[in-house]
Amino acid sequence: MSDSKPVILTCAQPTGVLTIGNYLGAIKNWATMLDDYECFFGVVDLHAITVKYTPAELRKNTLSCVAQYIACGLDPERSNIFIQSHVIGHTELAWLLSCITPIGDLQRMTQFKEKAAKLGFKVADEEDANGLRFSHEGARAQASVNSGLLMYPVLMAADILLYNADAVPVGNDQRQHLELCRDLAQRFNHTYSDTFTIPEPFIPKAGARVMSLQSPDRKMSKSDENQNATLYILDDPKVLKKKIMSAVTDSGSEIVAREDKPGVSNLLQIYSAMSGREIAEIEDALQGKGYGDLKKEVADAVISVLEPVQARYHELIADKAYLESVLKSGAEAAQKRAYKVLGKVYRKAGFVERPR
Ligand code: TYM
Questions:
Q1: Which DSSP helix (H) or strand (E) runs through 324?
Q2: Cα–Cα dist 192/350, whole Å
Q3: Measured between alpha carbons, how far is 20 from 28 in angstroms, rounded to an integer?
Q4: Ligand 1 close to Cβ of residue 90 (< 6 A)
Q5: Domains parsed from the chain with CATH numbers
Q6: 169: CA distance to ligand 1 center in Å?
Q7: What CA–CA distance (Å, rounded) separates 307 from 142?
Q8: Catalytic residue at 219?
Q9: pLDDT (tens digit, 9 = 90+) per residue, 6-49?
Q10: Considering the entire predicted model, what is its pTM?
Q11: Which end of the chain, N or C, is less packed with Cβ atoms under 10 Å?
């Protein structure tokens, strides 16, 4: 692999089966970048423990996520696929970055506020007389929010900066975290001297924000209480069809992507991203048809893309030796680059070099 190619780094959390949001907003696009970039694809197990989890599930989900990556088209021969905890440097760099990260910036992160709110923890919009931004709603809620949840974006910034990545392909929901990462890189460069590349976000045009099938004003997410709202890439085709056929649509019967039709717009977006056809072309083709016809076509498009992915996944997950070999070479390549950058960071920040 040539060193002169620009570097991309991106990751997903191994918190279960990937959704078609993860697929369309992220992995499908990563798979188109293999030849033009030196690619690092991480499975971020250290991020996954910021919420409640069971160790056995984490282990199973992490390996499953690796197999899902490959099944979705990430070719390990043309990219480096690694598990975050296999590479020394992510948490070390996160510590250094945390020392230049204002707490207020972390408390303002939308994802932190949403996740903390689910645990009953409210973040005040205004500082109180003591300069505190948290409004504690009872000691129990306070105790249930771990500080890792707050620090999450610092670890994410470390993931990116540890590889001096030029670009980070992500869905729209990660935009704010990426802004923080860029701020931290700039702050570090300014405080010490030029060290980090400022990474550019790569957000796809189609599929950057796949919405819930049941509440199309919300992003499709693994943690949705209503599991009919979320399509998983390993859902049985019958289940996929059933979920799509019961998707919420809008009043009227016109099949158009418009702001006042969030349900139909979401289905059209999914259809377009899965089939590669333009939305306008699909709208034309479906003129005069009903929502039931649209849903049937969306289901066919989703199933025809996911069936081969599922078949490949089942082969891969049964071949532990192959997955381990992918992870070994992925971690070696990632570690090599990570050590280089981490060494530079320590030097610039004034740490004594380790005697050789
Ligand atoms: P995660 O695991 O939630 O999602 C992985 C990728 O999928 C995208 N995505 C979506 N895109 C469109 N529509 C949706 N409904 C949807 N849901 C998820 C996400 O934008 C992401 O690209 N914090 C990150 C993981 C991470 C990371 C990193 C990413 C940790 N370190 C360094 C990039 C670089 C996350 O939770 O992604």
A1: helix 320-348
A2: 9
A3: 10
A4: no
A5: 7-110+147-207+320-349 (3.40.50.620), 227-315 (1.10.240.10)
A6: 9
A7: 44
A8: yes
A9: 999 999 999 989 999 999 999 999 999 999 999 999 999 999 99
A10: 0.92
A11: C
